[in-house]
Amino acid sequence: MKRTQLAAAVLLATGSVSAFAATYSVTPLPLQDTARNNFARSIDNSGKMLSVAQLEYSPPIDVDQLENDTNFFDVNGSALENEDDARQGVFTDADYTIIVNYLLSNFTASTGQKLASFRTFLTDTQDISLVPGLDEVTEKFDDYTHSVEALGRDSLNGNFVVGDSSGLVVLDPYENEDGDTVNYTYPESAQQGFIQASDVTKALPALDTTAGGFSSARAINANLQVAGFSTVSFQDDVDEAIETCADDELRGDQSEGRCLFTVYNGDFAVPRISSYYLNTSTNYLPGFVLLSEVNATIWQVDVNGDVISTDTYPLLFEPDEDDTAHYFTYAYDINDQGIAVGEGLTGDRVTITRPNQSGLTESERVATVFRDGETIELLPREENINSQAIAINDENWVTGAVLRSQSDIARSRLFVYNLDTQEQKYPDGFFVSAGVTANAINNNNIVVGKADVEATSDTLRETAAFMYNIDTEEFLDLNDLVSCDNTYELIEAVDINDDNEIIANARIKTTNKYVTGVDVINSSGETDLVDSIVAVKLSPIANGSIDECEVPEDEQPFERSGASTGWLAFFGLFSAAFVRRRFKK
Q: Which of 388, 400, 311, 309 is nearest to 346 (CA)?
């Protein structure tokens, strides 16, 4: 449906648009020739943005590993356009695509080349540069290995970048009991938080580095304090597993390094409170993390990215001595006063009825503040089923989501809370029962995120990018603030800086392409259009005016104008990667 500015035009006519009266221009990030999809992550006050690329074009292929360490040619050789050329490293567009898809799906195999599904780029609207995380340049490719999944999360003036990275994939030749050499390939560590300073990347270590430990870096402030979380202790089972790997007789016919990988292996995800979560489940946490305690962590770094000090924040409660469940506190954001916000487990369970579900018992999670060495619960627990703080600005306004029931069905709802005055607001979204997800707040007290735009009973509703002004209490669809001929459907606003510039995710139709970036031509000799997700920058237009677009009567939505189409794959990715942001200095 063609986007309409009708709602915003009505607000403008009544004089209530105030700070939102300026329209926005839409500029795609310059990553269209780099990958099929790219997702917004952050924008800082210098205008530098982080975007995560998925399905990158023309990644390097190690033909030797493909032929000798996998069964690719045995299984797929007959499906290739030219198998002989492919064995020599000469690929047609179609064969290249088949090989890359195989390697992406082969990431958990014990041998063979590994390709990361997601990598991060730092960009303005002109140039791009890779944020490699813990990846390294090798002689084989004369480039980075493309094996490391690096997710940049925040930047400071484009000079410092923080985020999370998988370990570098290593090649570990091992002669087994039959005398055959097995070329194991695996990441050499669990996920590590990192900081990139002056183009040099350094890991931000956990407090407890058993088996390498686990850490995550979520935000950086102007004082070079990095907020996140890390392991602070492990259960005895982890030490026993490490001892087994060190014993030639006990670990079995495998290398010690490969054995250790089975200890720390696993994907880590932080779901929003709109998604089911249980702190004993491997759906979100690898066994390695389930056997640990994770605490909110603040790393103080210097201008070179070296860690000067590390502070951790305890749980909200003291578990029983025989309690072996996994508990955590997480910090997601930090302001210039050094106050961090996030969430923590209470140790209790709650029963929640979500859309199209019966009541399920899950872990109780509450919004928390981390300051002066204390972990403090933020909101009255009796008013909410769950709560989660996502971002904080220099005015000490905190934003996030609470889970409340509407007609016995629980959906997330926006909250804003001021630490100094204790003022709190719970604004509706585009309608009373709309689910709302906050991602960031700037120092102008503007919150951005995504919100439901259709009142259906579906588990996943269609969403649109929103902005909410705490001072004026206006809640607007950003699709209503762009020109009528805009072709980008704004699904989610991910971050906003102090110039009110916004980075958002948008859906657009693009031509279907091979992994080489060449258009796929169908049997009719034509190209096919497919949905792609791209990051875009929204820039305020000084003295702009809101267009009043005409919409055919049969396309006008029932609830309101500006409906947006949901996107299941994007929802899944950023439930895992936890899209969030903060204000910028």
A: 388
Sheet-wide strand order for 192-197: 150-156, 160-165, 192-197, 200-204
206 closest CA partner among 234, 246, 241, 240: 234
Nearest Cα to Cα of residue 366 among 310, 417, 427, 432: 417
- The burial of 240, by beta-carbon neighbours within 10 Å (0-12 exposed, 13-18 middle, 19 or more buried), is given as exposed
Mean pLDDT of the chain: 89
Rounded to 5 degrees, φ, ψ at 39 are -115, 140
pLDDT at residue 19, rounded to an integer: 45
Q: Does residue 1 surpass a pLDDT of 80?
A: no
How does pLDDT run across 411-428, given as a tens digit for each residue? 899 999 999 999 999 999
Report the pLDDT value the prediction gives residue 551, as an integer from 0 to 100. 58
Please tell me the distance from the alpha carbon of residue 228 to that of residue 164, in angstroms, as a whole number: 10
| Residue indicated by tokens 């088996």 | 211
Query: What are the Cα distances from residue 12, in Å, to 470, 484, 551?
Result: 18, 16, 18
Cα-flanking dihedrals φ and ψ of residue 400, to 5°?
A: 175, -145
Q: For 118, phi and psi rounded to 5 degrees? A: -135, 135
Identify the residue with better confidence: 580 or 482.
482
Cα-based distances in Å from 15 to 98, 216, 322, 400, 536: 56, 45, 62, 29, 29
Q: How far apart are CA 316 and CA 339, in angstroms?
A: 17
Q: Residue 115: what residue type?
A: L
Pairing of strands 374-377, 360-371: antiparallel
Beta-strand pair 436-441/446-452: antiparallel
Which candidate, 382, 211, 363, places its Cα nearest to that of 291? 211
Query: Which candidate, 273, 270, 303, 304, places its Cα nearest to that of 289?
Result: 270
Binning the chain into helix, strand and coil, the percentages to the nearest 5 are 15, 40, 45
* Amino acid letter for position 138: T
| Termini Cα distance of the chain | 38
Q: How far apart are CA 244 and CA 108, in angstroms?
A: 22
CB contact set of 575 (below 8 Å; sequence gap of 6+) = 269, 271, 272, 275
Q: Assess contact for 412 and 427: CB atoms under 8 A.
A: no
The Cα angle at residue 104 between residues 168 and 195, in degrees rounded to 5: 35
Would you state the structure tokens that stand for residue 355, as one six-digit string?
């859309």
Percentage above 70 pLDDT, the chain: 88
Q: Are 38 and 534 in contact (CB under 8 A)?
A: yes
pTM here? 0.90
Nearest C-alpha neighbor of 124 from the set 580, 537, 584, 542: 537
Secondary structure of residue 239 in the 3-state scheme? helix
For the chain, what percent of residues have pLDDT higher than 90? 78
Q: Which of 172, 164, 231, 169 lies closest to 195 in space, CA to CA? A: 164
HSE-CB of 516 using CA atoms within 13 angstroms: 11
pLDDT digits (tens, 9 = 90+) for 263-308: 999 989 888 998 899 999 888 888 999 999 999 999 999 999 999 9
Looking at the DSSP bridge assignments, the partners of residue 219 are 227
For residue range 440-481, list pLDDT tens digits in order. 999 999 999 999 988 776 667 789 999 999 999 999 999 999
pLDDT band at 91 (very low <50, low <70, confident <90, very high): very high
